[in-house]
Design goal:
- The chain is globular.
- It has a single domain, classed as MFS general substrate transporter like domains (Growth Hormone, Chain: A, Up-down Bundle).
- By secondary structure, it is an all-alpha fold.
- About 80% of the residues lie in helices and about 0% in strands.
- It is built from 17 helices and no strands.
Length: about 425
């Protein structure tokens, strides 16, 4: 234990949340660009690349089990190695005749594995750091998670775009998916030395006792004060963002005669990776310090405004279709800064209002799964809405879809932050 206390959070928080973000972004966003390059249609891409995200919503079904066995570190490191191997298999599936079915199946495995990783990683974070340090490092947590976006949606997408022109589309994406695997394996080796244990498991001696413990964990979650309000907040806060996430890269890739910006894959890598994700990192850090100074309760409505209002830049881009790449990058920078700044609110809400208690890791997993559900359901239908409305009217619709986020941020009640272990 004394050895763990000597490990400064800066030595493991960034790598932990970088490893959490990498497969999530690869599955949820990079896959969209990959399948677009491989010739699939927008509605099909939006539906299936959202469908494979279900494990992040279903993780409460097995989250409590991780409270019962081994340490949180054990599951973090194990899933990082497994994820690396499966990304390698995904890379090898792309040249096959049935690549779409095979790659989707492997993405599902990656998603289940990554969701398990996230449960354990969040368990390490909230069990190792006290509430004050959680607030101080939540900005760095978000920043590190989104450095994974810089690499995934930025650098690696840029590499894929350049390799598409040199080697061909299939070969380009084989290399990129293999790189995802290599990075995860390297982080796994690092964490075998540097990651705190995150606390020992709850001891169970039989299958019956395990089921009893599971239901105690579930029951105690729904007995929390203001839990229905908390669930509404978590589900609705990101509902507009969920609709944007799948459509924005498709809009950027779509030909100008079809209402899109007509950007190359490598252009999107620059726009996301250099400008957008960098702005997200700055926004996350700024938002973390802002909330640490003012407190979450007094900040939450402002966070919702900063999170949602910049979505209007995509309506601007859709109506003006600027040819200037600088204008496109500026718009993305504005939106992603607001996204990073406001996203701190929902993460800290889960940490401070939902997770505290005996089963922090499992309850954090429940809440983050609900958050993902609020993101995923709108995302699944976004392709159909975009096809129905067209890009211009779709982005106008998204602005109206931000209203529930403002309402729950205004009305959600708060309880005193629990500090006891």
């Amino acid at each position: 234990m004394s050895q763990e206390k000597m490990r400064h959070p800066a030595t493991w928080v960034p790598t932990l949340y970088f490893a959490e973000g990498l497969p999530f972004v690869a599955t949820g966003t990079v896959s969209v660009l990959m399948y677009k390059s491989l010739g699939l249609g927008d509605a099909e891409i939006a539906f299936f690349t959202t469908l494979i995200m279900w494990p992040w919503t279903l993780k409460p079904l097995w989250g409590p089990l991780l409270e019962m066995f081994k340490t949180k570190k054990y599951f973090v490191v194990g899933t990082q190695f497994i994820g690396g191997v499966v990304f390698g298999l995904l890379s090898l599936s792309l040249p096959l005749e049935g690549f779409f079915q095979y790659s989707l199946a492997l993405f599902v495995i990656i998603a289940f594995n990554s969701a398990t990783h996230d449960i354990a990683a969040d368990g390490v974070y909230i069990n190792t750091l006290p509430p004050k340090m959680q607030a101080q490092y939540v900005g760095w947590q978000g920043a590190s998670y989104n450095i994974a976006k810089v690499l995934s949606q930025g650098a690696l997408v840029y590499v894929a775009g350049k390799l598409e022109l040199v080697l061909g589309i299939v070969e380009a994406w084989m290399i990129v998916m293999a790189l995802f695997g290599v990075i995860l394996i390297l982080i796994g080796f690092y964490h075998t030395k540097m990651l705190p244990s995150g606390g020992s498991s709850t001891s169970v001696n039989s299958v019956k006792e395990a089921f009893q413990t599971f239901w105690i964990v579930v029951k105690s979650f729904f007995e929390k004060k203001h839990i229905l309000w908390g669930m509404a907040f978590i589900i609705l806060f990101r509902s507009a963002e969920g609709q944007l996430t799948k459509i924005v890269p498709l809009f950027m890739r779509a030909a100008r005669e079809n209402g899109g910006l007509g950007l190359l894959t490598s252009d999107i890598g620059i726009a996301y990776g250099v400008f957008g994700a960098s702005a997200f990192v700055l926004g996350s850090i700024a938002g973390g310090y802002f909330v640490a100074k003012r407190g979450l309760k007094s900040s939450i409505l402002l966070l919702a405004v900063v999170f949602n209002v910049p979505d209007a830049v995509y309506a601007y881009l859709a109506f003006t279709l600027p040819e200037s790449f600088t204008i496109v990058c500026t718009a993305i920078t504005i939106e992603w800064f607001g996204y990073g700044f406001g996203f701190v609110g929902v993460i800290l809400f889960i940490m401070q209002q939902i997770a505290p208690g005996k089963y922090k890791m499992a309850h954090y997993a429940f809440a983050s799964a609900l958050m993902n559900l609020g993101f995923m359901l709108p995302s699944m239908i976004s392709g159909y809405l975009s096809d129905f409305f067209g890009y211009r009217n779709f982005f106008v619709w998204v602005m109206f879809a931000t209203i529930p986020s403002f309402l729950v941020a205004w009305l959600v009640p708060f309880k005193e932050v629990e500090t006891e272990e």
